[in-house]
Amino acid sequence: MAIFQELIELVNEQNCLLALIIPHLELVMEMIEKNLFRPLPVLKKAPPPTEGMTVMEEEDLLIDPSWPHLQPVYEFFLQLISKEAADVKSLKVFISHGFIQEVCEHIFLVFFLIYSNFFSSFWNCLTQKNQEKESI
Known about the structure:
Blueprint: H1 2-12, H2 14-21, H3 25-36, E1 44-45, H4 55-59, E2 62-63, H5 70-82, H6 88-94, H7 97-135
Antiparallel strand pairs: 1-2
Helix pairs in contact: 1-5
């Protein structure tokens, strides 16, 4: 993740952008595509929760080391396309309709996964409360 921070800093410096990023735009866009469009990882459950764990601690049991890279990649991409030194014509070669469509599909998938995780937790909480009421 530190490498993405360094890349963002390079994009923000006009001289570095013109000397290092723009001449290698094809490789930069390939790196962005590989990081953004790689398959999302399958979540692995950690060991089962212990009796004294809170709901928040139970949520922390999902182990997913591959998601933290997304924000810096999107940030780098945003910084790159928002700079005037990055010529629109050269970016247009890489940022096609298909590229935008794939970005939208991945964003939709991420939102869907977040929503389904939230809804699942919410549903489990409701059913648990209903079971407690019925047992009283």
